[in-house]
Specification:
CATH topology of the largest domain in chain A: Isopropylmalate Dehydrogenase
Number of strands of chain A: 14
Largest sheet of chain A: 7 strands, mixed
CATH class of the largest domain in chain A: Alpha Beta
Number of domains of chain A: 2
CATH superfamily of the largest domain in chain A: Isopropylmalate Dehydrogenase
Helix content of chain A: 40-55%
Distance between the termini of chain A: 38 Å
Oligomer: homodimer
Strand order of the largest sheet of chain A: 3-2-1-4-14-13-5
CATH architecture of the largest domain in chain A: 3-Layer(aba) Sandwich
Chain lengths: 335, 335
């Protein structure tokens, strides 16, 4: 049975929301996993009370007295708080007592701790946050979503590999199309790093490289050159577009509510709102580490936590981490 | 009377759409300007025919036999085609025979030609495309929208000045708040260039610097630190977010049409669709050149061309170019 460690102290409304997410996951998802709720166990127990009957055989509480705050400097916090819920949760996985870790806490701290404690697979230069972008069609994975604000061309090629394995294993795309985010499709477009990455990607084996893509192609799910499942960019631009998208969804919902107050109760409108509510989605995987780590939005509601648990189990079941190891062992990282 | 030169051969459906846009502008806007339609005058005359009575006293046709194609390399095209509609249109302004130039043609060629022919104001290191982002509240100007894929910190500070003057003169914001697009609000966030720009902007006189802002703050129109009218970033990330926004609007319209077919005729829905249709908006000014140049989307419909004519007249009437000159003459470019 898959063991998913959940940072109970992570989100903006922890541990209430995390506990509710865990309860939802245990009730609504297939019983292929159990959950390790990591944090201040007394607080977790208190948060469990209102939920009544929970399958405690599949729910373990793991004590971690310290909490990393949202505003703390990641590296310093991880080093000074070895008993934080982040460090304890990842420690379980490091000691093979857990298969996956997810947290809605301090993103930088989770990234730093996961990289330090789980380490990267050989050949992986940088771990990247894979951000799944919902679209009108199939979702598109954008990476890096914010782990690395400066990237060189070879790191971008590494992201193409990481994203391709994730798309194959978790998103069900046997031959994922990979696009490189750029300001135009032509070879000569872009800054020096992107131009070099474009040339490297064109001759990288094992990647179904579609070519340069533009900002408008992400939600379209294709460029003029073909369908795209994965879009590669540095973490600065990826983070900007990701956060922009969240806010665009919120803005459109607000405008709809104002323009069409009488149709808000319709099921098709509720479905649309659900789509536009980015918080509905699970977390973003940190790809490249040895193991499974998922970062959730700090404002994740319980349903997003549940969805992240599902994604975590998919990552474990599909042997994503092993497949990434194999991809990079084949020399895939370097063109 | 303001003289607006309009590249009649620019857009995807030129000269039909440009001519229609000119006719609309002459009919619907205040009569403070006349239009110089630049291009193959025989084709322009033919395109004018279906529109019947047009105020020809305010409409001049200027012959330019060559056309720069959308796929042509900008600099080479400009140098090899001195009689292109772009070169001829900007030439009018250079010789003080026109006050503004707008084109929906090859963006790179318009930028290159405007920079070469009009030149930059002293102190301006790079011209930037100012992209107005419609929001639920007031619009926010994002720059650079794609003119410069690599920027150093001082260039970003220059964009803050350019955007501030534009926001004051054309957007009606007496003390525009300026944000620096980053992955987080804290001082230590971002890549080396952005960190340096943040420090420079904090001590730049004449800029109402709000601080680092995130992708989600653009459409919100404010960060936690205050309201923002202008968001500064390099042209790579600005272009990605700009094109992403266009496509998000299109996607939401499509989803709405599918979810709520029975309400599409309502005026409030039409208003919402108009908002979401980025093509409705006028062009993006190229800021920093001596004069007025506006770049329109290649797919601009006639109404967008008309809106761009209106913006061009506002830029001339508000003495934007002179105000930019003064801003940089005061040493504003360098912190």
């Amino acid at each position: 049975m898959i063991r998913v460690a959940l940072d109970a102290m992570g989100g903006d409304d922890a541990p209430r929301v995390e506990v509710e997410g865990a309860v939802l996951a245990l009730r609504e998802l297939a019983s292929t996993f159990r959950i390790q709720l990591v944090g201040r166990t007394a607080e977790i127990e208190a948060a469990l009370k209102p939920h009544g009957d929970v399958d405690r055989a599949r729910l373990e509480l793991v004590e971690a007295p310290d909490v990393v705050g949202m505003g703390e400097k990641p590296l310093a916090a991880i080093k000074s708080k070895p008993r934080s819920s982040i460090a304890v949760g990842l420690g379980l996985q490091k000691r093979s007592q857990s298969d996956a870790f997810l947290s809605a806490g301090n993103t930088g701290a989770v990234m730093a701790a996961a990289t330090l404690m789980l380490r990267l697979h050989p050949g992986v230069q940088r771990a990247a946050i894979g951000a799944p972008f919902p679209t009108a069609g199939k979702s598109v994975l954008v990476l890096d979503g914010g782990a690395n604000v400066d990237c060189d061309a070879r790191e971008l090629v590494g992201f193409a590999h990481l994203g391709s394995v994730y798309a194959r294993d978790v998103m069900g795309r046997p031959t994922p199309g990979v696009g490189l985010l750029n300001v135009g499709e032509e070879d000569e477009k872009g800054n020096a790093v992107v131009k070099e990455a474009h040339q490297l990607l064109k001759r990288t084996a094992g990647i179904h490289y579609v070519g340069n893509v533009e900002g408008r192609d992400i939600l379209a799910g294709h460029s003029r050159a073909g369908p795209i499942d994965v879009v590669v960019c540095d973490g600065f631009v990826g983070n900007a577009v990701l956060k922009f998208y969240e806010s665009a969804g919120r803005m459109f919902v607000g405008m709809l509510q104002q323009a069409l107050p009488d149709v808000l109760g319709r099921p098709e409108v509720k479905k649309l709102f659900k789509f536009l509510d980015y918080a509905e989605y699970g977390g973003a995987p940190l790809l490249g580490v040895k193991g499974v780590a998922i970062i959730c939005h700090g404002a994740s509601p319980a349903r997003a936590v549940m969805n992240a648990v599902r994604v975590a189990t998919q990552m474990v079941e599909s042997h994503l981490s092993q497949d990434i190891e194999a991809e990079f062992a084949e020399g895939g990282a370097v063109a």
